[in-house]
Amino acid sequence: MNKKIRYTLAGVFIILLASLAWVAFKPYHYAIQFQSKTLPGVINQTIKVWSINLKGSDVEESPSVNLIKQRIKTKNTTYFYNWELTQKSDSLTKVRVEVIDSTQNNLLARLSNVFQKEKIKKTSVENVKALLEILNEHLEDHEVVIDEQTASPSVFCAYVPLKGIQPQKAKGMMLHYNLISDFILKHGIETNGNPMVEVYNWEMEKDSIHYNFCFPIIMKDSLPEDPLIKYKQIDSKNALKATYYGNYMSSDRAWYALQSYAENNSIDLENTPIEVFHNNPMQGGDDTKWKTEVYLPIKDK
To answer: Which Pfam families is this protein grouped with (predicted)?
Structure first.
């Protein structure tokens, strides 16, 4: 065997060995990338809602809007989906998801299946396609318009304090809508504007919110007491405002749009959104046209 052939075979062997080493020691088994014309927060919440409705799936952690670790259990294995969301511009996000098969985590299993990755690939592609379909439908079902810097409403209201995760905000409102409206009607209290949500604690890492579901009313000297319904004054604040059109279940998409706008314009915000709802979901109608005014207060200098 001449030198040229030996060098060629040695080169092929080195390349093959390097490829096997990469497959054996890389931290994931399959990766998918795509781009979407929206913000990381919108994709983050869409992944989480999709996960809630996907059998055997749960979100293990989300240390930031840009990172999600999801676990999907099937009959034969458990997959881990590590999502990374990178905002490229005001209207474009790059998404990368690395998939790990829990049955392929030891070296021998990885090497024995180097050429048998079709199952992981097929499952991963199917799941990401399903998510993309939901995401694209969602993007068609809502719109966020950044309005201006303005003053948030100043109102006196009857309210119920609530807490939960972001996707369940609208559910909390629905469960207590009749409670507050019937109480106001029963006692002849005069209303003074549209129902509102005042978020006073937003833990973004946990998607946890504490909020007051408020009905603005005319303040008077004597108001009836109730073990569930309370009263308070909400003072006006200097704020960034957006108008959201869509189902109230996802009005928090405007929160992320305002945060992105503020970051691009060097504005410091308080993460305490205020929402004013202009449509009554109980009356039905086209939810893509439901209007919400959303305010994020600007921090005092």
So the answer is: GyrI-like (PF06445)
pLDDT, tens only, 20-51:
444 444 667 889 999 999 999 999 999 999 99
Q: Which CATH class is domain 3-140?
A: alpha beta
Written in H, E and C, the secondary structure of 7-29 is: HHHHHHHHHHHHHHHHHHHCCCC
Domain ranges of the chain: 3-140, 144-297
Q: Say how far apart CA 115 and CA 73 lie, in whole Å.
A: 23
HSE of 219, CA atoms in CB hemisphere, 13 A: 9
Those residues with Cβ within 8 angstroms of residue 76's Cβ, 6 or more apart along the chain or in another chain: 103
Separation CA 216–CA 126 (nearest Å): 47
CA distances from 269 to 1, 83, 85, 198 (A): 73, 27, 22, 15
Task: State the number of CA atoms in the 13 A half-sphere of 220 facing the CB.
Answer: 11
Specify which residues 35 forms β-bridges with. Answer: 94
**The domain 144-297: what is its CATH number?**
3.20.80.10
